[in-house]
Amino acid sequence: MKRILTMQDLSCVGQCSLTVALPILSAYGVEACVLPTAILSNHTMFKSWSYLDLTDEMPNIFREWKNNGFQFDAFLLGYLGKEPLMEIAEKCFDEFSAEGAKVIIDPVFGDNGKLYGGFDMNYVAAMRKLLKRADIILPNVTEACFLTGIEYRGNYDGDFVCKLENELKKITDAQIIITGVEVAGRIGELIGGSERGEILWHELLPIKKHGTGDIFASVFTANYLQGKGLHTSCEIAAKFVADCIRKTDKDHFYGVNFEKILNARND
Ligand code: PXL
Known about the structure:
The radius of gyration is 17 Å and the shape is globular. It is 37% helix and 24% strand. It has helices at 18-27, 58-68, 84-96, 121-130, 141-148, 158-169, 212-225, 230-246, 259-262, and strands at 3-11, 31-40, 51-53, 72-77, 97-105, 110-111, 114-115, 136-137, 175-183, 186-191, 198-203. It is of the alpha/beta class. The structure holds 3-hydroxy-5-(hydroxymethyl)-2-methylisonicotinaldehyde.
């Protein structure tokens, strides 16, 4: 059984980060260990939130992991929250990687052309550095724009997304997957290639919901770790997200009811 460490925040309410990663990874038969970066009362799309940064606890956790000899077959990083956690993440890869361990990083700092609350360009710069350590990166279009310095546009075409891919290649040798690509009424992921990336297209649903990127990353990672390959893992993750959106009431604004899909899936 693969043992994965997922490093992201614990938002007590909000169907994102650890509250989706844990159940999804477990349901797919991956042993899910966690490194919570912060505890929030709820995610930052609500009107207010509390925030307990856990950076200071990391040395204690690492000391005991070393004492106990823990190692991980893969790392899935999501919302880290504070810049110092980037260096801590690198330390974590150095100290606790099993042989051949994969590092999958979803940079999680923005969407719809904007940074999430609490982030600035210093955070983006630190993330740009951390991405050098990744085997696979999963930025959305907004994050890819901030990382590359290319100005975000609401309306873009396939060439724009390929330009993002090419610029990301200058930042990292990781396999690049740009999520949430929307062109001409379709949604998809760009899967980077040695020449030009390929976009996997799906039906674009008329509703947008929070937390879907975190769900995509978890389903993708679980399938990829089981040996499914990039394309198939993306297809399964995209279908999972679309099914979740379809099962969620339109007034449920802060997340999606992935719980209804987790048990009903047949992959
Ligand atoms: O879903 C991304 C995410 C994760 N964690 C926290 C967030 C967000 C998006 O807003 O606020 C705390």
